[in-house]
Design brief:
Two copies of one chain form a homodimer. Chain A is an alpha/beta fold and 334 residues long. Chain A is built from eight helices and twelve strands. In chain A, the strands form two sheets. Chain A has a six-stranded mixed sheet with strand order 1-2-4-3-5-6, sandwiched between helices. In chain A, strand 5, helix 3 and strand 6 form a beta-alpha-beta unit. In chain A, helix 2 packs across helix 3, helix 4 packs antiparallel against helix 5 and helix 6 packs across helix 7. The longest helix of chain A has 17 residues. The two termini of chain A are 37 Å apart. The model of chain A has no long low-confidence stretch (mean pLDDT 95). At the A-B interface, helix 1, helix 6 and helix 7 of A face helix 1, helix 6 and helix 7 of B.
């Protein structure tokens, strides 16, 4: 499988070098694959640092969300591989002042372990650190307990909310609490039309029959909840929205934000058709869609497919989503 | 080939309905596939309308660039098919006041014909119309005369420049002249790693051997200048930059903007690696890169590959690129 790369072993470092070369507001740590804001104030004056990361291959997540009002830094593991606790600790040290840091971690074993260990080590150095675990996957709701749900594209909205809360000057406990409440009000479910191919690999990770899709597939190609015949975009979207609305217990008049996320190789043409169907399905349920994002926000390399995320809103949460933010990949909601 | 669509015959209309449903600042004409700004001032007070369009399948072009300081409207043909002259004329009528309209047309026979005919008809109705043809393809430089070069992704930068010039209150002749000068200072060249698949089609339009790429491929899968072995991202990027710099006659110290454009299925990881190589190749030539855009700005459905565009800058052109603009897909240059 052809890719525009040099050596597959160096794709992550070279990608991050490219990102910071293009964006003077970002800097790359010399010894670790960690991107941080280049314009941080001196240590004592820093607000709570908001950090996230995980395996690479989800671009623009996570480095694309580093910037004023969003992430203070992003830690990049190898493709689909958790970053080391050393890398996370380096990110905490490089970005945190006495106000401490909040780590936003997608719910995968490796990430929880390595971010958790780094947080412990940072605390022994006197840096207050809180961890927020995002587990927005609703696909496996009938299969696994809520604590084992995976972190998916909705995590990007939690980045934004936590980043805005930190920028307002909230304490590390307050930022974590606001982000945890938002995570509890968040659901995501995806549909994949095929697999993705790792850089350097000769073929995709699995094959789906030409007439099947996989519902609830994970962002690393992990198994979903079921394989279904390929139906129309309207029908697939209705299935996703029905599951999300049910899981979040959304009732008449509930205020929500919608994220239509492309998984990599899905065209904007298809995303717009899915977005049209999603808005119709939400209106039919008399839900108030107050903001929409549509685009590739958290991908799975070149996987064809998309996910939909719904987030319950109140005035405070909406204000945090709307607060100004500058990063390479963030776009204001519409 | 699976796609997230309903009926292949309705993909363009449903896509446009989705785009305007998500973006309240945009409106869709009832009888034609034309997206216009929803907040246009009354006819007599309108600045020069800037319109563009062409076949669909290049999203976010063109509807994604409709907004304040950018396009006033976008005309969408069927996938990879020129819009009718009726549709173009409807767009002109819907958006133009006495100041008239500038049509930005990519250099394809069908587009030139239909936009040209619509311009003639509009002029007979008393609407001043100027046409700017963008032919930024440098791949076929040794094969075809300059007037037969194709319009490629660099066209997006011409949209921005013309939109900003119109917003400043320039006349229709002035806007056209500024856009034509910019087009003459623009070059684009791409590399494709494979073909794209039309919605409803069972397979991609052509196949490339597993170890080959096509240099200079067009945005509809038209033939390029040569097939080459798949080499490293750094080598491919050097080939593109060398051709562009030579074609534009760029000398030591020349001021330029760089657009790294994904053709659809190329991951941001790969685009960042290409961006890194492009900046290095430009610096080695002592060219001054003043702005960079990187992302999917003008695509060819789900084609894997990318194009690089270079645009010569002076203070006036840079100011027009930097001028404020709001549209779903435009991002400020970095």
């Amino acid at each position: 499988m052809k890719k525009l790369i040099n050596d597959p072993r160096h794709v992550v470092r070279e990608m991050l070098e490219g990102i910071v070369d293009i964006s003077p507001a970002l800097a790359l740590l010399e010894d670790e694959n960690v991107v941080v804001r280049a314009d941080l104030p001196e240590q004592a004056a820093r607000p709570v640092a908001v950090l996230s990361g995980g395996g690479s291959g989800h671009e623009p997540a996570h480095a694309g969300y580093v910037g004023d009002g969003l992430l203070t830094g992003a830690i990049a593991g190898d493709v689909f591989t958790s970053p080391s606790s050393d890398a996370v600790l380096s990110a905490i040290r490089a970005t945190s002042g006495p106000a401490g840091a909040v780590l936003i971690v997608k719910n995968y074993t490796g990430d929880r372990l390595n971010f958790g260990l780094a947080a412990e080590l940072a605390r022994t150095e006197g840096i207050p650190v809180e961890i927020v675990v995002v587990a927005d996957d609703v696909a496996l709701r009938d299969v696994v307990e809520p604590a084992r749900r995976r972190g998916l594209a909705g995590t990007v909205l939690i980045h934004k909310i936590a980043g805005a809360a930190a920028r307002k000057g909230h304490s590390v406990q307050e930022v974590a609490s606001i982000a945890r409440e938002a995570s509890a009000a968040l659901g995501t479910m995806g549909v994949a039309l095929g697999a993705c191919t790792l850089p350097g690999a000769s073929k995709p990770g699995f094959t789906l029959p030409e007439n099947e899709v996989e519902l609830g597939l994970g962002i690393h190609g992990e198994q979903g909840v079921s394989r279904s015949p390929l139906s129309s975009a309207d029908e697939l979207t209705e299935t996703l929205i029905a599951t999300l609305a049910d899981d979040l217990g959304l009732k008449d008049g509930a205020r929500i934000a919608l994220l239509v996320n492309g998984l990599g190789a899905t065209t904007p043409l298809e995303l717009a058709i899915v977005g049209r169907a999603a808005l119709a399905a939400l209106r039919q349920r008399r839900l108030q869609v107050e903001r929409v994002w549509s685009g590739n926000y958290l991908t799975a390399l070149d996987m064809p497919g998309c996910s939909l995320s719904l987030l319950r809103l109140d005035d405070e949460r909406l204000a945090l989503l709307d607060a100004p933010a500058t990063s390479p990949a963030w776009q204001p909601g519409i």
